[in-house]
Amino acid sequence: MTRAALFDVDGTLVDTNYLHVTAWWEAFRQAGHTVPMPAVHRAIGLGSGDLVAHLLGPARDREQDAGISATHSALYATCFERLPPLDGAADLLRAMAGRGWTLVLATSASGRELKALRRALDADDVISGTASSDDVDEGKPAPDPIRHALDIAGATDDEAVYIGDSVWDMAAATRASVPAVGLLSGGIPRADLEAAGAVEIHDSPAALLDRLDSGVIGRMSR
Description:
Elements: E1 4-7, H1 17-30, H2 37-43, H3 48-56, H4 65-77, H5 89-98, E2 102-106, H6 111-121, E3 127-131, H7 144-153, E4 160-164, H8 167-175, E5 180-183, H9 190-195, E6 198-202, H10 205-210, H11 215-221
Parallel strand pairs: 1-2, 1-4, 2-3, 4-5, 5-6
Helix pairs in contact: 1-2, 1-4, 3-4
């Protein structure tokens, strides 16, 4: 039987959420917008275009969108050589691969950013593929990234689990009928992840690794 573990990356496997928050905050500031950092934080996990639309709303000057996203990308790129993996992240991936799980990354990152994240994670030997924002028409919270990751893994929704850290992750997985496991490592409150559809929640990749024999992953491994 195929078992597929689909993973978000930012805030789930690599400790980048607050780097993104700072880069987005500055990008908005340079474009003349004051956006509170907590609001930016809650939007992390959306693709760039959706994040700008979510935070500035439909009445914004849409001609600014591409420039704001480009400024964020340039600022964030200054961190590419020092992105920190979360404790236990690579060990979690290798442990699941060792138990027969097919691992696919389903992330809003793409291009150079995705390469930097994979380099930081240093677990390409067990990652079977990546569903990035370049591969789908709609990003999270739409189910498209999760469904594309399922196709890459060759799995059905009842053969998979999704692990992420944002409400957008939980919503996308739930809409794709895939059980969503939430991690608190991205800084989003437990209650918010539960409200968005998380079936269980762990503090970090290391905490999930310690509990692989229990919960939804343990049941699916038997």
